[in-house]
């Protein structure tokens, strides 16, 4: 299995190099040279199988012969043994044709754990085989950082620096990062937005001197292994609801578009998906793109669903690449223009192809809060604000059923906003109840790329 850059100016690489590099050296994102496919019989055979077994099959299809099936199976068993629910991603029925896929039973109570736990083991396996150490730099809008720190803390071959926008994530989200005591972890509060953090990470990856000095890697959803791991729960949930014998639709609270693009990956692998709804808050660059054909950056608006407070969705470049017939010159031109001007008109044929699968819906703050209350009253389920955006979106779009809403975080990660919406304060699960009592350690830095690059170099070399 070989991987190519969406911008076409980097050589094709194998799975190990794509995982350990994260971002391609030309600034593009890695995608498989050809999509692996699963037969209807293989997909049907996933029914009733342990989650780790399905994960080994799906992720293994992207690793090819670089990782043995036995090693992949063992890594998946270890990764998903860290989850508190035996099903790993259980389904909860909300209505006659609507279900929640609970993605928050991992160590940091968010969907990022599903990919990050296996990613940490892939890093251990690949770096150990090469007798190599790396520095991971990640930006987080709330949940990625906590999941990454939880997965990589204490690991011998990796140091990790997590950037988060100061004052723009919840206290619980912050504490999942900043209470780590291991000396291979550094957390930085950046005086800016998530988009600022993400732009700094991209600049760091394009700094050849820094990349070589600290052997830089990334675990944001720019890393294709994250996307491959997230595609797994599309298969497990869809099969539980009758796939491949009938198509299933998904509604995805969406910010950086990695979770929704993972559904597209599952579709390309052969899973029958009728529709994917990208549900956004007022930071609705994706919803506007799918509905209007214009991908236009706006000012980031703080909301009660902060992990979606994003106006530059990295993974949209991967979808664009696919829908312009994998033309790297066009993709590079388009996203350089977007970087310069903050606007991109989708080619009509590409937009039409996106619309075959995707719809976009924007949900405001008041409706998000009302949906938390109405869902509790009507079903007894206490959902977080991001999940509420997904549930609310279904009222605004006709989607063929059955429908799965991806429930991306535990309500206890946003206790104040949930309590304000419905009068019930969600409690942290027993395993993380002491989070509020732990000492925090983090640094504060301005949103300046050179300052943060110097910090990363100093930490890596310490």
What do we call the CATH topology of the domain at 91-107 and 224-422?
Rossmann fold
Cα distance spanning the termini: 36 Å
In terms of DSSP E residues, the strand content is 15-25%
Strand order of the largest sheet: 4-5-15-10-11-14
Query: What is the CATH architecture term of the domain at 91-107 and 224-422?
Result: 3-Layer(aba) Sandwich
Summed up, the helix count is 19
Structural class: alpha/beta
Q: What radius of gyration results from the CA coordinates?
A: 20 Å
Number of strands: 16
Biggest beta-sheet profile: 6 strands, mixed
- Runs in which pLDDT lies below 50 for 5 or more consecutive residues are none
Mean pLDDT, to the nearest integer, reads 95
The CATH class of the domain at 91-107 and 224-422 is identified as Alpha Beta
Shape descriptor reads: globular
Helix content: 40-55%
List the helices and strands and how they pair.
Layout: E1 2-5, E2 13-14, H1 15-21, E3 30-32, H2 40-44, H3 51-63, H4 69-80, E4 91-95, E5 98-102, H5 112-130, E6 134-139, H6 143-152, E7 158-165, H7 171-178, E8 185-191, H8 194-205, H9 208-214, E9 216-217, H10 224-240, E10 248-253, H11 258-268, E11 273-280, H12 285-292, E12 294-296, H13 316-323, H14 328-341, E13 343-345, H15 348-355, E14 358-362, H16 365-379, H17 385-393, E15 403-407, H18 415-422, E16 443-446, H19 449-461
Helix pairs in contact: 3-4, 3-10, 4-5, 5-6, 5-10, 6-7, 10-11, 13-15, 16-17, 16-18
């Amino acid at each position: 299995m070989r991987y190519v850059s969406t911008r076409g100016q980097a050589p094709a690489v194998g799975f190990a190099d794509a995982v350990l590099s994260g971002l391609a050296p030309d600034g593009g994102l890695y995608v498989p040279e050809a999509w692996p496919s699963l037969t209807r019989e293989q997909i049907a055979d996933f029914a009733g199988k342990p989650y780790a077994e399905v994960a080994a099959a799906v992720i293994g299809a992207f690793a090819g012969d670089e990782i043995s099936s036995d090693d992949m199976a063992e890594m998946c068993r270890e990764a998903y043994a860290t989850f508190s629910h035996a099903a790993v991603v259980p389904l909860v029925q909300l209505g006659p044709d609507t279900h929640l896929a609970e993605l928050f039973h991992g160590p940091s109570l968010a969907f990022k754990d599903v990919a990050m736990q296996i990613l940490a083991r892939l890093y251990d396996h690949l770096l150990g085989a090469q007798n190599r150490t790396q520095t991971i730099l990640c930006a987080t809008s709330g949940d990625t950082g906590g999941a990454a720190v939880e997965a990589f803390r204490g690991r011998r071959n990796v140091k990790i620096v997590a950037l988060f926008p100061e004052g723009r994530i919840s206290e619980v989200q912050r504490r999942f990062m900043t209470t780590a005591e291991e000396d291979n972890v550094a957390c930085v509060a950046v005086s800016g937005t998530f988009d600022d953090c993400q732009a700094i990470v991209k600049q760091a990856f394009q700094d050849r001197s820094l990349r070589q000095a600290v052997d830089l890697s990334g675990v944001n959803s720019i890393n294709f292994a994250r996307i491959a791991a997230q595609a797994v729960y599309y298969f497990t949930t869809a099969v539980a609801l009758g796939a491949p014998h009938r198509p299933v639709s998904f509604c995805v609270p969406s910010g950086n578009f990695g979770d929704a693009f993972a559904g597209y990956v599952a579709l390309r692998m052969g899973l029958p998906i009728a529709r994917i709804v990208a549900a956004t808050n007022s930071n609705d660059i994706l919803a506007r793109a799918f509905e209007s054909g214009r991908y236009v950056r706006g000012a980031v608006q703080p909301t009660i669903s902060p992990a979606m407070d994003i106006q530059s969705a990295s993974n949209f470049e991967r979808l664009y690449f696919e829908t312009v017939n994998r033309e790297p010159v066009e993709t590079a031109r388009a996203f350089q223009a977007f970087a310069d001007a903050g606007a991109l008109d989708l080619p009509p044929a590409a937009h039409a192809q996106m619309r075959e699968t995707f719809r976009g819906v924007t949900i405001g703050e008041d409706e998000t809060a009302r949906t938390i209350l109405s869902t509790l009253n009507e079903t007894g389920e206490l959902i977080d604000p991001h999940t509420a955006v997904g549930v609310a979106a279904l009222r605004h779009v006709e989607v063929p059923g059955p429908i799965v809403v991806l429930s991306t975080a535990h309500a206890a990660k946003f206790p104040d906003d949930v309590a304000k919406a419905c009068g019930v304060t969600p409690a942290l699960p027993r395993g993380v109840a002491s989070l509020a009592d732990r000492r925090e350690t983090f640094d504060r830095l301005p949103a300046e790329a050179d300052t943060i690059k110097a910090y990363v170099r100093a930490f890596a070399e310490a």
